[in-house]
Amino acid sequence: MDASALHLHPWSRRLRRALDAPAHWEFLDAPASSLADAVESVPLGPSRDALHGVWLGHPLHPVLVQLPIGCWMSAGLLDFTPGGRRAAGTLVAAGLLTAGPAALAGWVDWARLDPPRRRTGLVHALSNTTGVLLYAGSLLARCRGHHARGRLLGLAGLTAVSVGGALGGHLSYRLAAGPDRSAAVPRLAPPDWVGLGPVDDFPDGEPVRRTAGELTVVVVHQGERYHVLAERCAHLSGPLSAGTVVDGCLHCPWHGSEFRLRDGEVVRGPATAPQPVLETRVLSGHLEVRLPGAG
């Protein structure tokens, strides 16, 4: 079967519709909103940005989930390998121990999503929670000597976390909950100097929206300097021109990410990728910008 035939196969369409469906389940909005408020109220301090993955430059959650999933998949194989029973039990326990940090990072990211992505994320989390409970039951059964029951509960847990993993992949790649939204900026930014207007058009300390070639930018005038950044937030494309300037940083109005004006570095998440900054110059009283390093 060639790739085009596979793409058009009825089961493929049904699978895509099933993965798309949770994003439209509006009945999840009320519990999701309450749960998101609860997650946001947890006093994590600087740990919240660490859990977002600001230090890593991309979300931390997908990295951490490799640990429990890897342990549980390996346990599933060892369950049907002669002499592998004890090692399988150890891996089930290791998966449960590593599931907590992975889940915490996921909840912290999830709380800053918009409603459609939050709905899919909630179903993803419920599926994974079901898997964790099944694996806890599996470990308990193994410890009591009920190895057949432990294997059966382990297989059920692996099925649940596989469904959760499919929804997580859909959330990340189809619904784009985690990618850097500013990744295309180097291809859109003008390679040659482009004018943004007279410098008098940019009040001190006030973000102003302009267009540089194909790229929308935000201009912030501070003293004798003009900072120009990509206008759409790297997190979920929030309009930075509607944000506020505080202590040399630009605050996104949607989810609270903060970017340092001079270099675009993330000062506060949930954004994990730096906001692209353009090179600037003032010529004959007009502000001009271009792609950094294009000269």
Can you characterise this structure?
This protein is an alpha+beta fold. The protein is built from 10 helices and 10 strands. It has helices spanning 3-8, 10-20, 29-41, 47-52, 61-64, 66-78, 85-110, 115-143, 147-174, 185-188; strands at 194-198, 208-212, 215-222, 225-230, 244-246, 249-251, 258-260, 266-268, 279-283, 286-290. The strands form 3 sheets. It has a 4-stranded antiparallel beta sheet with strand order 5-6-7-8, with no helix packed on it. The chain has a 3-stranded antiparallel beta sheet with strand order 1-10-9, with no helix packed on it. A 3-stranded antiparallel beta sheet has the order 2-3-4, with no helix packed on it. It is elongated.
List the helices and strands and how they pair.
Blueprint: H1 3-8, H2 10-20, H3 29-41, H4 47-52, H5 61-64, H6 66-78, H7 85-110, H8 115-143, H9 147-174, H10 185-188, E1 194-198, E2 208-212, E3 215-222, E4 225-230, E5 244-246, E6 249-251, E7 258-260, E8 266-268, E9 279-283, E10 286-290
Antiparallel strand pairs: 1-10, 2-3, 3-4, 5-6, 6-7, 7-8, 9-10
Helix pairs in contact: 6-7, 6-9, 7-8, 8-9
| Beta-strand percent range | 15-25%
What oligomeric state is this? single chain
* Major sheet attributes: 4 strands, antiparallel
DSSP helix count?
Answer: 10
* Topology order in helix (H) and strand (E) letters: HHHHHHHHHHEEEEEEEEEE
Radius of gyration: 24 Å
Secondary-structure class: alpha+beta
Q: Which strand order spans the largest sheet, edge to edge or round the barrel?
A: 5-6-7-8
Task: Report helical residue fraction.
Answer: 40-55%
